[in-house]
Each structure stands twice: as C-alpha cells, then as structure tokens.
TrEMBL record, chains A, B:
One of its GO terms (molecular function) is 4-hydroxy-tetrahydrodipicolinate reductase. Its EC number is 1.2.1.59. Homotetramer. It is found in: Cytoplasm. InterPro entries: DapB_N, GlycerAld/Erythrose_P_DH, GlycerAld_3-P_DH_AS, GlycerAld_3-P_DH_cat, GlycerAld_3-P_DH_NAD(P)-bd, Glyceraldehyde-3-P_DH_2_arc, NAD(P)-bd_dom_sf. The keyword Endoplasmic reticulum does not apply. Pathway: Carbohydrate degradation; glycolysis; pyruvate from D-glyceraldehyde 3-phosphate: step 1/5. This is Glyceraldehyde-3-phosphate dehydrogenase. The gene is gap. D-glyceraldehyde 3-phosphate binds at residues 141-143, 196-197. The keyword Cytoplasm applies.
Amino acid sequence: MLRVGVNGYGTIGKRVADAVAAQPDMEVAGVAKTTPNFEAEAAHRRGYPVHAAREDRRDAFDDAGVPVAGDLDDLVVESDIVVDCTPAGIGAENRAVYERHDTPALYQGGEDADVADASFNARANYDEVAASDAEHVRVVSCNTTGLSRVLAPLDEQYGVEKARATLVRRGGDPSQPDRGPINDILPDPVTVPSHHGPDVNTVLPDLAVDTMGVTVPATLMHLHSVNVTLETEAEAAAVAETLTDESRVFLVPGDARVAGPAHLKEYAQDAGRPRGDLWENCVWAESIAVEGRDLYFFQAIHQESDVVPENVDAIRAVCTDTEAAESVVETNRALGVGFGESEETRRVAADGEGATASADD
Amino acid sequence: MLRVGVNGYGTIGKRVADAVAAQPDMEVAGVAKTTPNFEAEAAHRRGYPVHAAREDRRDAFDDAGVPVAGDLDDLVVESDIVVDCTPAGIGAENRAVYERHDTPALYQGGEDADVADASFNARANYDEVAASDAEHVRVVSCNTTGLSRVLAPLDEQYGVEKARATLVRRGGDPSQPDRGPINDILPDPVTVPSHHGPDVNTVLPDLAVDTMGVTVPATLMHLHSVNVTLETEAEAAAVAETLTDESRVFLVPGDARVAGPAHLKEYAQDAGRPRGDLWENCVWAESIAVEGRDLYFFQAIHQESDVVPENVDAIRAVCTDTEAAESVVETNRALGVGFGESEETRRVAADGEGATASADD
C-alpha cells in the first residue's frame, strides 16, 4: 500500500484525500492543515490523521478539539509521497521540506511549472513522466487539464494545426464568498495569450494553442469556447465519436436539455457523486460543429474536481511501475468516473447520439 | 427638418428619440408606447408627443396622467420616417402599418433580416443601402454592429481570411430584473455558429466569420473575445493604429486600468454621457496581440446604445442624399461620440499609446 500524505486540505486537498482513500493500492497517511476550521474537523471525523502544518498554530487545534497527529515533518516522514494541495505559491516553498526527507511530491497547477521537474496530465504525458523518474511533479491546473484532455486525442486523430480557446472562468469557487466579480465580465488577463496556452505546452509541447481568459460572476464551473483548426477534414459526428472514446470526457447528450453548469452539477448530485463532483470534461454534443477544417465546441470544466483523478494517476506514475492505461482504468473505477456505467445513463447517452449525428447538418 | 417617429420607447427607443432630437436636421415627430409606465411619463416631460400604440389601452394613459397625442397611425402620418424600436418580432407585424401610409421605416436587429429590404451598419454598407433606395431597413443588432465596425476596417486593411468570435453576452439589461442567469455560464445558443456570424453577412456578405454565444450573470455590456486570421501579417501596433482611426472604436489605453465594463460605464458617467452610454466599441489596447497571422483582442459592446448612432445614420441613408462620411461625422458631433474631444482624454489616450505599442512584445 502506498502511503500518501496530503498537505493542504482545502478544495483540492480534501478531494484528493478521499480519492486516494478510495484506491485499492493507496491509503491516506495523514493530512496537514494550517488552521483548525470546519474542514479540519471534518478530516478528523473522516479518520484522517490531522497534522498541524504550522507549529505556532498547534495550540489552536487543541483549543478547537481537533487532535493533532504531528507536524508537517512527521507527515512527510510517514508518507511515500506527499500531494501538496496548498494555495498557489506555497507549494514552491514546501519543496525544500519534501526534499529534506527525500520524499517525492506532487504540486498543483497554481504553482509555476518550474516548481517541479515535470508537469503532468494522464491523457497527455503519463508515460513520459513515468519514464523520466521525476520525483517532483506538477499536475496542471483545471483549465489546462480540460484543454489537454481534448486536444491530445484530436491531435492524434486529425492533427491540430492551431487550437484557440476562450476560457470563460468562474469568479471563485462556491466556498469563496469574498471573490468577485458581482456584475461584470472581465478580460482576465487582458493580455493575450493567457497563461493557459503555454501551460498546455508543458504537457503537449508541440501543440499550437492560443488562449484568452474571461472572468464572470459565477461559481460552479468554467466554460470553454473551443476552436480547433484541424490538419485534416472531419465530420462533426466523427469528432463526437473520438471524444466519446475518451474516458474522462462526458459527451452531454442533446436531448438531456443540459443548459449549463448548474444542470451538470444537479445531474452529478442526483447521481450521488461525492460533493456533486464532475471529474470529466463535459462537452455538449450539440455544440460540435465543423466549418471546413475549423472545429468548434463548448465544454464545461469543474474547477474543484477535474484534477483529482489526475493526481491519483500522477501518484502511480511517480511511485509505481503501473502503466498509463492501467492506472487510468483503476482510478476511474475506484472513483466512479464516467456517467456510462448505469443502464439509465447508457440510454440517455444513446438517445443523445441522434443529436450528435445531426450537429453537422 | 426630417420628422422622425419612434415606435416603441424602451431601452433603444428612448435613446434613438434623444439622438434624433440632438441632430440639427431632424426632430422627433412623436413616440408611441403600449403602456403608460415611468418611461412614458418621462417622454412626456421631455416634450415628445406620446402616442398610444394600442387603441384599447388609450384610457390607461389618461388614467396615468400622460396626455395622448394620438394613436400609432397618427404618428406614422406625422412622420417622414418611423424608427421601429418595439420588442423583437413586433416590428415585423408593424411593417404593414408603415406600408399602409407609404412611410419608410427602420427596424432593429432583434427582427429577422427579412423584415426589411436591407440590413444596415454605417461602417459596413451605408452607401449600398443609400444607393438601393430601400425604404424598409433593419439596423443590425448590438453584437453584429460591434463585430462589423472592426471587421470592415480589418478586412479593408489586411484582408480577413477567417474571423472567429466568442460573444460573452450579458444576461439582461440593467432594467430587466426578471432575466437570468444568476450563477451560471450558458452556451447560448448551444449550437455553433450562433446567429451573429450569419448576421454580420447581411452587411458584409463576403466575410468569413464564425461566432459562438455564451450568456453570463452580468448586465452592463457584452464582451467579445475576437480572433481574426488575417490574409497578410500585421504588427499589433499597426492594428491598434487601424482601429484608432475608426471614429466609433474607442481604444482603451492600457494605463487607464480599465478592468472591464463596470469601469467603462463609470468612465462614461464621469464624462457626463447621457445614461452613461458607450456608443463606441471599447477595444482594450493591451489585448491586441498577433501570433503569426492570427490577431486577437477583447472588446466590450454596450448593448443599450451602440446601435443608436447607426439608427441616426440609417435615417439619413434612407431619407436624404447625405453621404456616409458626412452623416457619420454629423451624428458623432451631435451626440458627442468619441472620447478624444477633451484635452484630458487626449492625454490619457496619448499615454495609452505606449501600452499599445508594447502589446506585441
């Protein structure tokens, strides 16, 4: 059993801990947190050993009635690998701690690429990272993960001459009431390209991609408006088929009448998903359209959870000899990735193929 | 003096009436409205003869203390041309009324293109419409106007191989409290292309353009994320210069620190603009970027007002022999279009040229 430490127990950290706990070959060595808030209390009740990430705040955990299993160093010593899920920029500061104990570590996409020896997306470059023997690996951000998952198969199948995407980003997560905007549509960043295109190139180095970022008053998911100029012509129905074959792409059937992220979240909650998570890219089948060699589609990306299965795969890529396909299947099975499992969902998806087929009318 | 009737006195109608009243060669023959709400009362106080558009509601105007100058037929008889500013779909029903009196009419972009004999955008096709002797002319919608104003000069200067735009649309106007979404990012329409690209082709028939629509929880302006594959290479600074030369494009200087529509509206209000209107496309100078032959930029479009000067020009195109350039200058002067008039604004714009020049670094 791989013993996995999780440093940082916020939006990503708590999901990574649960995803690790669900794997047959992994267990949670413990989680580290700076403050004993409601999330720390929940971690304790879930049975995860809670470590005080800052020695000077250890008393606060005692005061809050959250038993402290140790400090951050103790957690690193207990762990075969640490998944750093601390806020952007803190991961870079933590690398020295992991190196001091010669413990491999994963970092999140909020860190600069140079925090680690390699950047990772299971669909794009699992094998390269595994072969590199990199022990410090950065899992790319939610948006970059979302782009990589569709651009990799499109490039393999049709060749990508140039990809262009406008990322209509949520202003903050549901648990970030202090973020904005309230009533505005912000070019963010106002300069072009945004960092997402170059970030895709950390896992797909040869792919031409330009991205533009916009931030809006919503919290549920990002929405990507994607254009790909393909190297070869393709029917919309064939592209839909290509994306259907991707285990972490959910092709939203046209007749499911999913208007946007709120419906997707509702669907995930109705399906009993933990926290209503959507680990998959959600691509609207109806939106897939081809004009000449220009492909267009919309996809929604759940910023809180799409990187979670990627972190699990990255653990195996760094610590084991498991191959990409095997790891992805295992991760998906343990988490329940894919809406195609139930008879009912298969029916909805099958009905949706009609809409898909007609998208290129 | 051209006597102009305005049928429909909502968001667009009241602005068109004021813009007509500001022109030296036009006067407002009267306005027609279906209900005697706060806007009807304001029209009366401004001195516009208020007509009851529906005979069966005429008593309601009396009850509300808004004197009725006549019915819709009376207004059409009084007018040399009627600008129909009724809700989408009603204009088509009204055409028979205007034809019955042999009175030319303008329609708004919410109507289908076939409501009229020609579609109009001053920058794209004033001369063609004037030469056609069309008496029923549709002024294209706010988004289509915004796209046409930049694509026409880019096509003339560099050639447009293909334009692609994601239109991040406001959910509703500030005066539409019943519209949504509240916390969502909707593909709208989910099918690609949205109607905007084909609509651009009603005024620029030979231009290749694909558009995607997204609707978000904001009310102030639309935001366009624009990509144009040019036929010839161009420096970002040269493109900025091309757009600066357009009288209805406001190149937002980088050092003005305009984060988004809210800042633009604040700026327009500080400048004393009526209703804080922004008649110009607002293009962020900092956003103008070129990768190979791919040009990118962001522009904000004020859905309530950018078509207002276009309606004024369309009146002249239909009713007079005024040439395009002369009409545009006259309309701009009378309304105060352009932020380059004051010494202070010239200074801000001049400072901004530094940011523009560095946009292609």
